[in-house]
Write a structure and sequence with these properties.
Length: 390
Amino acid sequence: MLNFIQPPITNTGEAFQGKLRTISTEIIFALLVILIFALFKEAAHDLARAGSWQGLIIPLITLAICAVTPGPIASAAAPSPNIVIRVIGLLLGLYAVLAVVTYPSDISRSADFLEIALRIASYLALLFSILSFWRPALVMVPVAVVMAKKGAAAHLFGIQISPTDYIPLVEMAIFLGLGLSLLGGGTIAKLRARIPAAYQIEIRDATLLLFMMGVAAHFSNYFFSGLQKIMLDGGPLFWVRENPTDLLSINAWVEGSFPFAQWPEFALFSVTAAGLLVPIINSTILIGQLASVVFITRRATMIAVTLFYNLTHLIIFLLTGIFFWKWIVLNLALVAAMRKLPKRVEHGTIVILAVIVTIMAPHVFTIARLGWYDTPALVSSQLFAVTSEG
């Protein structure tokens, strides 16, 4: 049983067996969820890339999973994963409805029908995002719809859509949703009832474990972004000392995405200040990113570093116009969820697994490696439309 507080055991042999059984149950459950998530992720990405219609199979798969194994009700799970799932579900449900895939009508009959199907799926996503407040595992449906819409848009317009700005939300919700679906409701509840009592998993403790692993996977984005910076050509400290981070502000000003461009004097001051503070900015960002693997071991440091990451996202937006608003919303949800964590997450198996997942996450999750040398070069994109007259 996945209990963090065991009843008193007087026999040394029983104590050892009980400890081994508890650790094994936790690890086996965690590995099972990771394995299923990895298989689902590969299948979903393959379907999204295969074509415009194939992506709609992803929501159908999640609907089937939720019908067979809807998972436990929200009150049975730990508060922390519930908070994150509700925020992600509502955000992506609204995003699915509001971010409409528009394509010229009467050009392709298939595209017209696809647009209708995607609209229906979008409203279905919003419905399930609301239902996930009661059955958290249902969050997989709105997430799958967003993946399907992204894949369809990429196929229709023949372009690559970067997943960097939204993939942490998608994969965390899918990971938590799949884990919850294994913990109760429907067919899976009948299967779990056959497991001997000694190996049963407490839903509240198991969902707490899943949440910590999800946080670790998200922290891995920051950890490997920092690692990427010290692995660039020039040596581990070259990026900190020499990278002209302030060029991002100048480039944004030139291309028209600099938030302060309408106030030239203030814009010039902010760009100049950024140039003078480059070593401090670079070193602070690098230390904060690399330290994520240590900060995840304590509740207070988890909250502090997550707020620090949001501060960096806001500063990056103000200085460059690059706005990772979905990451900011996710981080705020994580902070609210971390405040509900019990003290026991700072001990034992949970801490070990969290550190391991932070380091090993790229083998399973899609991890952003945001590390490069900034240059004054600008990328200019041009789009050409070919009409029926040529």
